[in-house]
Amino acid sequence: MSRIRQLVIAAKDFENACQEIADVLHTTVVHQDPSLADLGLQNALLPVNDCFIEVVSPIQEHTTAGRYLDRYGTTSHPGQDCSGYMIEMQVSDVAQVERVWTERGKRIILRPGRSADGRPIAYERDGNVHIPGLSGLHWHPKDIGVIMETAEHHPPEAWLYAGESWMSESRHRAVGLGFAAVEVAVDDPASMASEWSSGLQRPLSATGCGIVLADGAEVRFRRRRNSREDGLVGMDIWAAHDGHVGRVFDLCGVAVRLVQHTGGKLQSAL
C-alpha cells in the first residue's frame, strides 16, 4: 500500500497561509508540533478528510524551508511567499522501500520515528519498525525529484504527525475527501516516474510519466516550465460534493483542482 497522506506547503506568513487553506477547503488547524522549533520551524496540520495539508514556516534564519522559499516561493504580496514543499507517502512496508531505493542509489537524509503517543523517537527499535508508532524515511530531493517521506504508521488508519483530535473533528462542511493526485515538476518526467514505480512497487500511468496508487490516486511528473518551479507544484483533491467538481484555483502557490472520485475506497467524511 502506498498512499498520498499529507502534502506540505512552506510559507513565510504562517497565519495567512493557514487561514487561506482553512477558508478555501472548509477545514481547521487540528495539530501543531512544538518539537519542530528545534529545526527553526513552526507548523500546523489541517485535515482533508483523513489526509492532511501541513503548513511549515521558518521562525529563524538559515532553515531549509526558508532557503527553499527564497528560491522557489511565489507571492503577489511582499512577505507572503509560499510554495509546495513536501510529499508524505504512507506505505505498508517502509523497509522494502528502503531496500529497493537504496540499492538504486537513492540517499536517505533523515529517519524520523514516533512512539504510539506521538513522541519523536529513533527510526527503529532493535532493527524493527515501531508497532504501534511510525517509522519514516526522508529521501534526498535530487534523487527522487521532490522533498519526500515514506512512512509506515501503526495502526495504519492513524496519522501520528497529526495527533488524535482530528479523528473526532466534524468535517460535514468539508470541500475535499482526500488527494486524487500530486503534480511534481522535474527535469525528466519519464525517468522519475520509473524510479517511483520501482521504489513504491506501483504501475506506471498510461502516459508513462506517473504512477497509479492502490486507491486510484496518481503521482504525476512534468517538466519544469521555468526556473522558479520545483517539486510539488499541483494537487488534485477528490471533491466532497458534485457542486465543487471542476473548480481550479491557486492555494498558497500550489495549483489545485477539485475532481470527481471515480473508484477505490475512501474514508467518508464525518
Largest sheet: 9 strands, mixed
Q: What is the number of strand segments?
A: 15
Count of DSSP H/I helices: 5
Uncertain residue segments: none
- Please write the string of helix (H) and strand (E) elements: EHEEHEHEEEEHEEHEEEEE
How much of the polypeptide forms β-strand, as a percent range?
35-45%
State Rg: 17 Å
Structural class: alpha+beta
- Quick check: average pLDDT? 91
**Shape annotation:** globular
Give the helix level as a range of percent: 10-25%
Task: Please report the distance between the alpha carbons of the first and last residues.
Answer: 24 Å
Characterization of this structure:
It is a single chain. With 270 residues, the protein is α+β, with helices and mostly antiparallel strands. The chain has helices spanning 14-25, 64-72, 94-103, 141-144, 189-200, and strands spanning 2-11, 41-48, 51-58, 82-91, 108-110, 113-114, 120-121, 133-139, 147-154, 176-186, 210-212, 218-223, 231-239, 248-251, 254-259. Helix 3 packs across helix 5.
What structural keywords apply?
single chain, 270 residues, alpha+beta, 9-stranded mixed beta sheet, 6-stranded mixed beta sheet, 5 helices, 17% helix, 36% strand, globular
